[in-house]
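Supplementary Methods. Inverse-folding protocol.

Structures were first reduced to a discrete structure-token string of length 334. This string, shown here, constituted the complete conditioning input.
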């Protein structure tokens, strides 16, 4: 029997997930059923949306049950195929990889990778779900006009780093919010005009006002919490706030998000606040991937990656990403 160490959910986290919420089981290598692929995992992605699955509460992503295998995006080599479009040796990306060295994925979810276009792990970052999220949240929901100011929280993360570069490409004034000075400096090196370290500033609303003297036209909110409140105080007439993520609430996921209520500000400035899920844009994925790949190959997109090594490190990588300790797209190399 081939050893296949597999991470499962041991218990629902009550706050920020910790290592003891997961358990490593030695399971046998699975067999592909009709319409499925047996895959040797090469890369795993850990992303903020996974926090929502670790709860019995109703959410847009199907929740896990105690004892269920952890799942997420991955890249791997097909070992055996029960679906004619795929064959052994193909490299594929899919969003239903188990946290295990050998996994089965549905052929319907698998995407054949062109190894000559870009490094394969970029299909989990700038050319995959995070890149698509940045593309559609900014351009289709934010709908910025040339020269407008775009504020991006978690700006050095998997989505934020791409959003800032797309803003630069489109002639927008991009301002970053991140958690360390090193992250801010890197954001400025890829096209953000300036940045704000939200962990060291004493008055976040005033600091944002100074960094955005013309106000904020579009705010891509990846965090919620105090950054959202401070941005709302600086939003322009007819400003747009796109709620992409709420990672700042990862340690109190099931509790109410309590903060100031600036309803008068929203009313007077006619601010539009809209939630964003990348799945709503599935019909446009192909054209967006083509554009992102062209920008990447032209040297207009740079992707920073933060990786851990080995299946045993996967929960640690997930937790450090939720805490904002990663620098770039968090990956696990198996």
């Amino acid at each position: 029997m081939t050893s296949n160490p597999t991470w499962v959910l041991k218990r629902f986290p009550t706050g920020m997930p910790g290592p003891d919420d997961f358990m490593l089981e030695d399971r046998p290598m699975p067999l592909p059923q009709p319409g499925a692929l047996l895959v040797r995992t090469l890369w795993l992605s850990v992303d903020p949306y996974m926090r929502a699955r670790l709860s019995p509460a109703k959410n847009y992503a199907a929740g896990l049950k105690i004892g269920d295998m952890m799942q997420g995006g991955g890249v791997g080599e097909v070992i055996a195929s029960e679906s004619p479009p795929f064959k052994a040796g193909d490299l594929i990306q899919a969003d239903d990889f188990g946290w295990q060295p050998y996994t089965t994925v549905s052929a319907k979810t698998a995407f054949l990778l062109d190894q000559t276009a870009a490094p394969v792990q970029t299909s989990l970052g700038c050319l995959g779900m995070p890149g698509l999220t940045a593309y559609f949240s900014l351009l289709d929901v934010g709908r910025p006009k040339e020269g407008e100011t775009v504020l991006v929280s978690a700006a050095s993360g998997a989505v934020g780093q791409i959003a800032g570069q797309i803003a630069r490409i489109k002639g927008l004034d991009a301002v970053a919010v991140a958690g360390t000075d090193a992250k801010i400096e890197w954001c400025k090196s890829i096209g953000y005009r300036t940045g704000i370290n939200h962990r060291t500033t004493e008055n976040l609303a005033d600091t944002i006002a100074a960094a955005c003297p013309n106000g904020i036209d579009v705010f891509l909110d990846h965090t919620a919490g105090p950054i959202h409140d401070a941005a709302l105080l600086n939003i322009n007439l007819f400003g747009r706030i796109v709620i992409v993520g709420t990672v700042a609430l990862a340690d109190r996921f099931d509790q109410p998000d309590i903060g100031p209520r600036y309803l008068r500000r929203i009313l007077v400035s006619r601010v539009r606040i809209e939630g964003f899920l990348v799945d709503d844009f599935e019909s446009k994925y192909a054209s967006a991937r083509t554009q992102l790949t062209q920008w990447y190959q032209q040297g207009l997109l740079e992707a920073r990656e933060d990786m851990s090594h080995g299946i045993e490190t996967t929960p640690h990588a997930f937790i450090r990403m939720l805490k904002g300790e990663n620098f770039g797209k968090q990956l696990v190399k198996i």
